[in-house]
Design brief:
This protein has 82 residues and is mainly α. Helices cover 34% and strands 5% of the residues. The longest helix is centred in the middle third of the chain and has 14 residues.
Length: 82
């Protein structure tokens, strides 16, 4: 995770164009939990991190990347069941 912190820290990275979704995605995929179908989650996380936006999802697995700080909704929140 330390590589991800370096890649997403603008004080460390000299040029903003070095911080691409691809570079962050590769860093996210180095954690042991990142395998198989997790690559799509890692891509969404990388895009959110590089664009400075908050990721909102029903997938609690997005919490595996602490730097992301996702908003995870419950499946029943906001559902009107009559």
């Amino acid at each position: 995770m330390s590589l991800l912190r370096l890649l997403t820290n603008s004080k460390v990275m000299a040029a903003e164009d070095l911080l691409t979704p691809e570079s962050v995605w590769l860093a996210l995929m180095t954690v042991p939990a990142a395998k198989g179908s997790v690559w799509t989650d890692a891509w969404l996380a990388a895009f959110a991190l590089t664009q400075g936006v908050k990721l909102v999802s029903f997938d609690s697995g997005m919490r595996r990347w602490a730097e992301l700080q996702p908003e995870v909704l419950s499946r029943t929140s906001g559902v009107n069941r009559s």
